[in-house]
Structures
1.
Amino acid sequence: MTSVYKSFGVVLIVVFSCSVASGQERNATYIPGQEGYPFSEGLAPIYDSRYWKDTPENAGYEIFGKYGFIDKKGRLVIPFLYEKAGEFNDGLAPVAARRSKDQNELSYGYVNPRGEEVIPLHFQDARPFSEGFAAVKQAGKWRFIDINGNFTIKENFDDAQSFSEGLAAVKLEETDWGFIDTKGKLVIPFAHSSWFKFSDGLSAAGTLGTPGALINRKGEVSVTFRSGAIPTGAFSEGLITLSGGIDKKSGQTLRGFGDKEGNIVIPLKYEGAYDFHEGLAAVRKDGKYGFIDKNGDLRIPHIFIITEGEFLQAPPVFSEGLAFVKGGYIDKQGEWVLRTYDTSGSNSK
């Protein structure tokens, strides 16, 4: 692998200047990779398809590319070693590689910011840490570990999500979703067809017979949105994404935002919408994304393409001042800060 890295150039720092239709490319840094996650704790996972490997027809698997991590200066600080990667939380990030005898299977574990595999890659699946816990899959069941890799909740589940505000969505075979606390106690019964993490004391967990409802920490229906709007995410900065109504021209479901009182505060008029982060949210109009503020005012024009492929499916949200769109990372003025090496079909006009 070392020779491969050298052939690409590990750091790949190039500075260039040119203008584009939205903000400018003023001294943007050229970085490795094609798709990126949001930054968290100063680092971001980055995907590079140049590590795609043509495997034998009878191998039963393919290597599509590799993941590494960059810092906010665009430096590759953890090499392209992994076939999956997630964001850093609590000083650790989930990664996956082919380490078992069965090359069809990925082994999951956690690395620290120095790239050291501090929790060995021996799980079948793993989610990012949150509030000191992470859900991991072993022997077909999901359990929770702490930052030292020790199991903390004795119960096993058929599926489990990350903790948020002290609660995590879990599921048993042939049951709906419920929520447990950090002691493993079931505090909201298995009665919800879908789940979203708790935020601001509310969750848009699907409740039979009450579509569009938000539940509180007791599992009680607390808010119901009017006009048939359905929550499609979790509350973030006081607002939640909604869907409802059909655009007559395109036939697409329209998106907007609601508040904790059940009011639609930003109209259902967008083709797509993502959560608010750092005061801005990505919304799609005529096939292109821009960013609005919490008043619904457009702050960054609708000129960006969002990567929604099979690899990262990274949300275009601002984190630590940057957001990833196709072609690289932009700042809150819509100007390029970090550019990927392959900008074909990107946001330049």
2.
Amino acid sequence: MTPHRPGRRPAESAPRVAVGIVLIDRRGAGCISTFNAAETFPTASVVKLLISIDLLTRDPNGSGSTERVERMLATSDDAAASALWSSGGADAIITRTRDLICLPSLSAPATPGDGDRPGSMPSGR
């Protein structure tokens, strides 16, 4: 992948990569700038973060899942992620976490059981 060069748009730096960006001033000025903000992108292994956030929100003590979560995050362990995804309610994980992490556009995968591919738009809309 070609590194980003100042003064060039991200899509010009890496033409085979789809990029969506939204810059938000968290101090209240709102949206500062966007690029491809209305596109939907697969989030791939980001779902492992959603699983972790959901589990910690529902059960701050981990109830024996701590080692599995650590392994899932440290090694991108898909088997651990699948087990936690199923036990956490699958698509319900997305429903419970999307507002918490300010990604209201995050949606369940189009194909049931395809938990590693929920979609999101950078704009969060």
3.
Amino acid sequence: MKDAKSFFTFKRVVALIIVVLVAVFALQNWKSVEVSLLFFAIKLPLIILILAMLAIGVFVGWVFEKSDFDHLVVNLEQETRKELDDIQTQLQNDKTAKKEAEAASQVADKAKEVKNDVNGAGDETNQPEDK
């Protein structure tokens, strides 16, 4: 039972269904068709053309195995993570710069207040008193 479950994976069941559908479709199309490519034209039964296209598709699938796509996905994930880290670092730097600018503005405002207080107190002592 366990062997049957491991043999009938989702991927294999889908592949089997597709093969059956293609076979039924091909068997219902026996008429000859003319296929043209550049300067050549060939007349052959449609069933041969359908099965040849299926074989080409299987070959292309075999050449570009899933592992190749997995490798591509891993590379893209790594690049995306690096870009995300760069953006997060830049955002953190921007926040730090903004906080520093706000702190500098507060210090400047406080300095103006102190200067005004000092100038205001000095003006009051220098003014003659009215008697």
4.
Amino acid sequence: MDDWKKMMIKREPDFQRRGGILGVVLGLLAVLVLLGLFFGWFDFGVSSQNADGEDGDRVQLEFGINKDEIAEDTNALVAKVREWSEGDDAEQVDGTVVGVDSVAKVMSVRTESDEELTFGLADSTRIESEDTLVPISNLANGQHVEITYLEDDDTDQKVAVKVKIEKRS
């Protein structure tokens, strides 16, 4: 077989793969544009007026991106994903921090009914103060917290999903 035939046979699958990738990219782009139009992220317009406000000879196509709408929808999606990740089994308790061990990643809280509960703090635990993520080092004795947690039925261990540090007035 001639060398050029071998080369053409080898290149054919590469070309097909590139065409397939291009098709996927164009398909994703089309989906993004359609979603953007549906959710109001993008808008298109046509104008035929000149600078004086009179009908002109030129037609101008306009494209706009609504950043506020995109941010609002993104925040709503993130909140929904967090809600799903906490699951239906998540429980919630309010209390005062009475102990924190940042090395062992545990914290103890005294509830309003004077019960002391200990929670594990996973790497994925969200610790928030005034709607801002903060490190475990921001937890201190005496702080009032609202904890969303999951409890392992077999071991009775509680793992905090979210710790919200609340400001007391």
